Here is the input.
Amino acid sequence: MKRVFSGVQPTGNLHIGNYLGALKQFVTLQDDAECIYCVVDMHSITVPQDPKLLKDHIKDIAALYMAVGIDPKKAIIFVQSDVPGHAELNWILTCNAYTGELSRMTQFKQKAQGRESAPAGLFCYPVLMAADILLYDTDIVPVGNDQKQHIELTRDLAIRINNKYGETFVVPEGRFVKSGARVMALDDPTSKMSKSAPNEMSRISLLDEPSKIKKAIMRATTDSEGVIRYDIENKPGVSNLLSIYSAFSGKTVEELEAQYQGQGYGNLKKDLVEVTVNALAPIQERFKEIRYSDELVNVLKDGAERANAIAEPVMKRVKERFGLGL
Ligand code: AQP
Here is the structure.
């Protein structure tokens, strides 16, 4: 059975980009693979977090994992900082990563932009991500398209260390969805939808009320052509709405183009509001049941134990290869 690992940062409530790009795959994969899903809290502190809010967000994300359909009987759900191997392996990989390759990471460039000085943790973020993945002898990493470069770096690090120290790591592969792999911001369809973007109307969070969903979609940036056609280059706004619609409804973009031929953007947006609200309603219902339950705490405790049991022998092997310890 293949092993799958992925994680989400507790930096705010998950949005439909996180869901369509990553979480939907998490759910499908749990029936055919050994899945490990992490709330990557150590990644989130690469930018400042309010400690009290962070604690809440960790539980929010874990509850959302379960609300979207991840079954803790099938998959391991846990919090990154509960398994010490992540930090330990991170250091070993940091010693084998080059500053040149890290400075080429586009996510770092975007997040560091405009800052006088960026935290070293932000610079090393992709190394910690590599540690998360390699710690579990992972075969497959389901992520959104924005993480392609980080997966490549993970593979490079694994191959580099295997060549230098002998077979140490499984070399993982990224797994990307076709529709929804990169959901763009509603207010600016040239940048990706993000949890931490200042404008609330730029995203649809999984827990948003129908009225907020309506407002964000009806205000979404389009263009003045008035034709419903998928064309990322020239019509990024309309193309983004069509992609979201397609991912939630199961209809292809071509089917949607045909359905809305000759109609204005208003109709497309109105129907997309309905499709989105209906898709999110059962997730929101289930979230309410789980978020403040003992079940959630127990799932995370049990998940950390199960994750540790896989990570410890891997760390033992890695330390052995590097000649660390007694
Ligand atoms: N817009 C997106 N479209 C498709 N997939 C996306 N993902 C993120 N944004 C989109 C995927 O969601 C998973 C979890 O992401 P993350 O929380 O680990 O970090 P991120 O990529 O930095 O996500 P955000 O929402 O942009 O968070 P902030 O604002 O905190 O940086 C990943 O698999 C990611 O590919």
